Amino acid sequence: MRHSVTTRTRTSTVAGIAALALVILGLFLPAFATRSLIQDLFFILTMLTLAQLWNLIAGYGGMVSVGQQAFVGIGAYAMFAGVILWGWDPVPAILLGGAAAVLLAIPMAFFAFRLQGAYFAIGTWVIAEVTRLSVAQWKTLGGGTGTSLPREATANIMGVKAIAELFGVRDAAARDILAYRLALALAVGTMAAIYALLRARTGLALAAVRDNDNAARSVGVDARRIRWLVFLSAAAMTGLVGALIYVQTARVSPDAAFSVTSWTAYVIFIAVIGGMGRLEGPIVGVLVFWALQTAFADYGSWYLLALGILAILTMLFAPRGVWGLIHDRTGLALFPVQRRLVTDVSLT
Amino acid sequence: MIWLDVLVQGILLGGLYALFAAGLSLVFGIMRLVNLAHGDLIVLAAFVILLIVATTGLDPFLAALIAAGWLLQRLVLNRVLGRDILPPLLVTFGLSVALQNGMLEAFSADSRRLRVGALESASIGFGPVTVGTLPLLTFASAVVAIFVLNRIFYTTALGRAFRAVSDDPTTASLMGLNPRSVFAIATGLAMVIVTLAALYLGMRSNFDPSIGPARLLYAFQAVIIGGLGSLWGTLAGGAIIGVAQTLGAQINPEWQILAGHIAFLVVLLIRPRGLFPRAVD
Amino acid sequence: MALLSTHALTAQYGQFKALFGVDLHIDPGECVAIIGANGAGKTTLMRAITGVLKNAPEMIRLGGEPIGALPPDRILQRGIAMVPEGRKLFPSLTVEENLLIGGQVRRGSGRWSLDDIYRLFPILKDRRHSPGTALSGGQQQMVAIGRALMSNPELLLCDEISLGLAPVVIRDIYAALPAIRATGAAVILVEQDITRALSVADRVYCMMEGRVTLTAPAGQVTREAIHAAYFGAAA
């Protein structure tokens, strides 16, 4: 008999194939989708990616950051700097966003990793505020009021012409399609990377560090290294998403790009409502968020009030979120990370 | 002389931040509860006071606010308190966003102010330094509030219960205390301080539904600088933030808030548990 | 009628079952010792009686009334006070404040006042303004006992009060027992020190692996019977 440890189940194989099909469908969706659907999907995909990343550091890694807006903001501003100051094309300038986020994340982690629990949360938030206030001093990028991408930069984004010809649409719509495809790539890439990380040994180590730092260290898990790895990778990806969001928006201001409400609170609600510590959670959560936003679109900020209350109710009555409820009822896990011992009897 | 003036104005500003922070310090010290909606509750209280000014009849409103704090603890926060700090953090974050948007719908995004006539611009001269009467009154209120809270905390049966439940809720329940009830009373008490803080917030500056999170940060910084569980430390923490902000503003008006945050980070870097941490923790 | 009785009492921590149908009773004014090895379920039994662990109401009765599902603070109000294992003084409170916390919920017209406690343990009066945790182990144990007495209990539960203390200190603490019993309170002593327990108790229960394996009047029990009940019949 041979024993092996696997995380794969029949459901996960089916889910994997379905996910692949969805991604391929997603790539060609612009051929027949309306422009507003593409814009909605861009919003859903970017929020989904942010929620997955927060879920990674908080839900899996136990680092409850309230400062993720720092990476969105610095990513956006680095991209703007690349375009406005150095004349880069906005699309490659997105990479500057990821790099800048890592550069910010290094001192932030150095500082915040000394803190625990609530102090960590507040510490990361204050650093994000410091970053916002510092960026607001950057007069060449508009200071406190912000700035827009110059028309000549947005008019000639690489790939837009090709997309416009391929789908037979105007440039503005082609820009949306390009942003949507990049968002799709980031979302898929982020989720695939997180899933791979969790299924690898690192995933177990991460869970061990979250549950008991000292105990994990005593069995040889390098807690520090794993924390750094996860925090910096999440920061890099968050920076890329931030830059991409502001390529699409084409206008940036410190208050918007570093908004704790938009880029951390809503993101946390998405993860919480969907179900923390699960890859499926944010997917469900972002759909709930989008549905609320669409349903209450005509009633001002009521949907945000509803979102806050929904997050409270979720924590009170279903702390493992909507996906947790589904999982408890049906045992369904699309992306299982739990190890199972499989005995192969055919080899005896 | 200008630096003496900056120092005095800064310390007085710190009185306001200590008022923001005292209720938070109480709740955080007793139950390790991170109430991210604390700033929004202050703003809410300011709006409620504004309503009172329009309609009069103070007592019922104050009572209602205390009752609201008590209910908040009983119905919501007690359910998520535990070893894990994440659930209460997320619940109060939800509350924060709900409150901000609820106030936005109820009171609009307009800036408001509690008008108190001549008191707004009154000032008193102390030798070379002239201080505003209102900032002085704020600071005095902070000192009195913290003095009273300390008396409650260290000399009354209620304070004994607060400390016992904070040390060890299970053993406290074996002594006949119900930790959940004690927590609810603490949050009710914190709301009294929140109301006082809201009064000065509304009299000293404009406020609108969105300014809560910033007040929360100042308050939390004061608590953390002072050291968990030390109310006088919270006052000192408020003064440090106040002086740093005033100093920053003196150099460049745009640096006011930034200077406060940086002072906080520096203190935290040197003393991760604050200046006056409680011995047992 | 028995003061306190348990009826097929079970308890578990998650998957782990710690008590398997425990039946015991104690009469008013009686002193009962519960002995057993580590892990026999003695402390779990105390946690169940005091309401720290939730049970079905009928599993524990006080004066005939079901109390199994009441929370700890309500159990105390009904007259069962606890000296927890490890003393568990409140570090932020002084000696006197620790005692006062115990008296916060007082029953009846006080059998025990602060002065009575200081008369029982005179050393505590000198140290009354010290933090509870600044005292020696034996003195801390005295505070823990005094704190429980301050509620004027009809039943005092003492969980391992001699644990980790020097023999001479244990003797001092046990010397307080007659005064406690003189108020009419019943006492349950959870002890590892069998000789000590048998010398003061009226009756003894021995527990092993979550079950009661022996019940006998303390004067009539043999070393062999205890040995068998403590380690299993085969030993």
Give the topology, please:
The complex is a heterotrimer of chains A (348), B (281) and C (235).
Chain A: E1 2-6, H1 10-28, H2 35-60, H3 69-84, H4 90-112, H5 117-135, E2 147-148, H6 151-155, H7 160-167, H8 171-199, H9 201-211, H10 213-218, H11 223-249, E3 251-252, H12 254-257, H13 260-274, H14 280-295, H15 302-317, H16 321-330, E4 340-344
Antiparallel strand pairs in A: 1-4, 2-3
Helix pairs in contact in A: 2-8, 2-11, 2-13, 2-14, 3-4, 3-5, 3-11, 4-11, 7-8, 8-9, 8-11, 13-14, 13-15, 13-16, 14-15, 14-16
Chain B: H1 2-31, H2 38-55, H3 58-80, H4 86-107, E1 123-126, E2 129-132, H5 133-155, H6 157-167, H7 169-174, H8 179-204, H9 212-226, H10 231-251, H11 256-270
Antiparallel strand pairs in B: 1-2
Helix pairs in contact in B: 1-5, 1-8, 1-9, 1-10, 2-4, 2-8, 2-9, 3-8, 5-6, 5-8, 6-8, 9-10, 9-11, 10-11
Chain C: E1 4-13, E2 16-26, E3 31-36, H1 42-49, E4 60-62, E5 65-66, H2 72-77, E6 80-83, H3 95-102, H4 114-120, H5 122-126, H6 137-149, E7 155-159, H7 167-174, H8 177-182, E8 186-191, H9 194-200, E9 203-208, E10 211-217, H10 223-231
Helix pairs in contact in C: 3-6
Subcellular location (chain B): Cell membrane
InterPro entries (chain B): ABC_transp_permease (IPR001851), BCAA_transport_permease (IPR052157)
Pfam families (chain B): BPD_transp_2
Per CATH, the class of chain A reads: Mainly Alpha
Order of helices and strands of chain C: EEEHEEHEHHHHEHHEHEEH
How large is the share of residues in beta strands of chain C?
25-35%
Radius of gyration of chain C: 17 Å
Give the class of chain C from helix and strand content and strand pairing: alpha/beta
Q: Care to describe what's here?
A:
The complex is a heterotrimer of chains A (348), B (281) and C (235). With 348 residues, chain A is mainly alpha-helical. Chain A is built from 16 helices and 4 strands. In chain A, α8 (171-199) packs antiparallel against α11. The radius of gyration of chain A is 21 Å and the shape is globular. Chain B has a single domain (2-108, 125-270), classed as ABC transporter involved in vitamin B12 uptake, BtuC, CATH 1.10.3470. Chain B has helices at 2-31, 38-55, 58-80, 86-107, 133-155, 157-167, 169-174, 179-204, 212-226, 231-251, 256-270, and strands at residues 123-126, 129-132. The termini of chain B are far apart. The model of chain B has no long low-confidence stretch (mean pLDDT 88). Helix content of chain C is 33%, strand content 26%. Chain C contains 10 helices and 10 strands. Chain C has helices at 42-49, 72-77, 95-102, 114-120, 122-126, 137-149, 167-174, 177-182, 194-200, 223-231; strands at residues 4-13, 16-26, 31-36, 60-62, 65-66, 80-83, 155-159, 186-191, 203-208, 211-217. Chain C is globular. Chain C starts with a strand and ends with a helix. Chain A binds chain B through residues 58, 64, 66, 111, 114-115, 117-119, 121-123, 125-127, 129-130, 133-134, 136-137, 144, 260-261, 265-266, 268-269, 272, 300-302, 304-305, 307-312, 315-316, 319, and chain B through 28, 32, 34, 36, 76, 79-80, 85-87, 89-91, 93-102, 104-105, 213, 217, 220-221, 224, 254, 257-258, 261-262, 264-265, 268-269, 272.
